[in-house]
Amino acid sequence: MVEEIKKYFKNGKFNPPAIKQDIVEVEEKLGIKFPIVLRELYLTFNGFREEIAGAAYLLPLKSDKDGSSVLGMNKFFKEEYKQYYPNIDFSNYLFYGSSCSDELWAINLINESEVIAYNHHMEDVYEIVGRNIFEVYIKDQEYFLEVTKGV
Q: What are the Cα distances from residue 79, in Å, to 76, 83, 85, 102, 133?
């Protein structure tokens, strides 16, 4: 999948790879194990943005200059979000990126063939948007190109 992502997103801004210890540290702090696909992505590039749409398709593991990170976002959903929306449970999901329309993406830690999109405006629901991360990236890119056609 890594090669397909780099090939497809020629305008992508790819960060240098993460080191295994950073992945292990984030896993320990969140009390989870990364799916193999995310582990592979992070060992190749520790985050990437799609420059044209501005989407943070893969957040860095730890805070970057704008403060967004896998660690920060998932700590927020595990520790603070329940006070706002107590009826939604994200305990089996790992948030890893966002779309060009600011929906957050997460992968199901139990069923890795389920990727969801969520925005706080959705309140107590989320949407299943794909079976794998690459599929979700492609759909989002196609959506962006369609809505900006002729602009």
A: 5, 9, 12, 21, 25
Tell me how far apart the alpha carbons of residues 126 and 95 are, in angstroms, rounded to a whole number: 12
CA distance 35 to 69: 17
The DSSP secondary structure of 26-68, one letter per residue, reads: HHHHHT----HHHHHHHHH-S-EEETTTTEEEE--SS--TT--
Sign of the dihedral through C-alpha 28, 34, 39, 41? negative
Cα diameter, the chain: 47
For residue 140, CA distances in Å to 100, 135, 137 come to 7, 9, 5
Q: pLDDT tens across 65-86, in order? A: 556 899 999 999 888 888 888 8
Alpha carbons 103 and 98: distance in angstroms, whole number: 5
Q: What is the pLDDT of residue 144?
A: 85
Structure tokens at 10: 């020629």
Using alpha carbons, list the distances in angstroms from residue 87 to 63, 82, 83, 141. 28, 8, 10, 31
Please tell me whether the overall predicted TM-score, pTM, comes out greater than 0.85 for this model.
yes
